[in-house]
User: Fold this.
Amino acid sequence: MDKPLKQIVILGGGSAGWLTAGVLASEHNSAREDGVQITLVESPSVSTVGVGEGTWPTMRNTLRKIGISENTFIRSCDASFKQGSQFVGWVDGKDDDKYYHPFTIPTGLGDANIVQYWRSHQRNMSFANAFTPQAHVCDSGLAPKQKATPEYAVVVNYGYHLDAGKFAQLLERHCTKNLGVKHLKAHVTDVRVCKQSGFLESILTDGGEVEGDFFIDCSGFASLLLGQHYKIPFIDKQSCLFNDSALAARLEYPYPDSDIATHTISTAKSNGWVWDIGLPSRRGIGYVYSSDYTTDEDAEKVLREYIGNDKVESSIRKISFKPGHREKFWHKNCVAVGMAAGFLEPLEASALALIELSASMISKELPARLDIMDLAAKRFNKRFHYRWEKIIDFLKLHYVLSKRDDSQYWIDNRDVSSISDTLLDMLKIWKYQVPSHNDFTDVEELFSSSSYQYILYGMDFNTEGRLTSSRDMEPQLAEKYFLQNQTLTDKYLKGLPKNRDLINYIFSNGMPSTV
Ligand SMILES: Cc1cc2nc3c(=O)[nH]c(=O)nc-3n(C[C@H](O)[C@H](O)[C@H](O)COP(=O)(O)OP(=O)(O)OC[C@H]3O[C@@H](n4cnc5c(N)ncnc54)[C@H](O)[C@@H]3O)c2cc1C
Assistant:
């Protein structure tokens, strides 16, 4: 057992497998003989999930670290910029029911009580518009940067919309050509295990046996190593997050120069919600819903109605999933990343971000020797258990705050029995105080207090504040930030190009290069 870790085997060639391979290979010099050797095994007969089109701003840093130029990424992956999400119809379903969760944090957050100021002085404007220019930038279809802004640099914070299939292909090319990752297309049929320790020694495939010291299970919903071999229990979360099905479609733009939305549009429907994502060449649209509350036929009607019945270009694809995660993610010398670890509805596009965080922690804490594997596993499991629970609470928040009562789905979503104690406690606290960094203690918190503020105050949550006076209530500083934001907004609305124009420019010329 006490031997150095030299050989890593990654099972699965979807976004999880290739992103993890890229992060590990670039940090551990896999292209050199004295680096960690990585083999990625991928079945030629099991396709990748192929959806997953929204990323977080974290992806910029991940791509930069792996060594992929942003120009190459945007051109190869049919990618465009994403500046956050717009939620339509989530509060009461009326015509003007829209709010943003932008990626830029509110101006003055943590320094002044901007929420109290907004509540008492600026209620004719949305919270996001009062304290960030980004919602205005999105409404105007503008890009988050200028043509002269270098790769990966920002004017306002952004992630991406991308074609998941093309993304995996780009990562594959880069990992195998530039980072020294070996790629084997073979179907895994079994594993060989050390009888004494229970550690995996190899995976058996129809193309031969692949040995390793450490195994990363990126086999998607199959969860071949962690789930099927080690039988780590699955924690089902459907009693909290009801959705378990998705219908996905593609739609061409009416004109080659149609605007590309620079945010994901998530529209609430009677038994779920529709995502609408703009790529340079097409839109990706899908309906996420609960099979306990509606049928596939009715769900398809909802999707076709959203799109306009005659306009669906490709066939509609159904994907079923179980919301939840494994009881632990790292067991013995095997860790699961991506959907092999678990899956939650893509309401805040958190899956790829979780993959990036998993790959980053595995890479930083990669045990030098096998005898400290258990310690690394313990640390990883604790951290990621916390993260999964936090994501679940954050997603549930969107449903709990809704006032919709047009179906049993929305009414049941507010039933206390479907809400975790931690979320119920936080909601009690936020009745009197605004979400702050005190509520979120992890250094790499997935959703920070600003995200919670955007959702709570976008959905009309009432934080009453204290009855007694405190410095917090003095409005002058908050007003300064409010005015600053209005000036900045005017400047950006005048100075930023249309999203489509910047994307066209990147295809023809490219941003100033940094990689
Ligand atoms: C409807 C929907 C929408 C989504 N939207 C978003 C989003 O907007 N943003 C976001 O971040 N995420 C989103 N996701 C999640 C995202 O798509 C996934 O987390 C991501 O693609 C990672 O998938 P994966 O690599 O874990 O699994 P997969 O893509 O399923 O890859 C599994 C791999 O395992 C291999 N494999 C399986 N069995 C074997 C075997 N026996 N032998 C060898 N290889 C095998 C397969 O060949 C494949 O290469 C969405 C998911 C769904 C379902």
Notes: The first helix runs from residue 15 to 27. The CA atoms of residues 2 and 416 lie 50 Å apart. The chain has a mean pLDDT of 95.
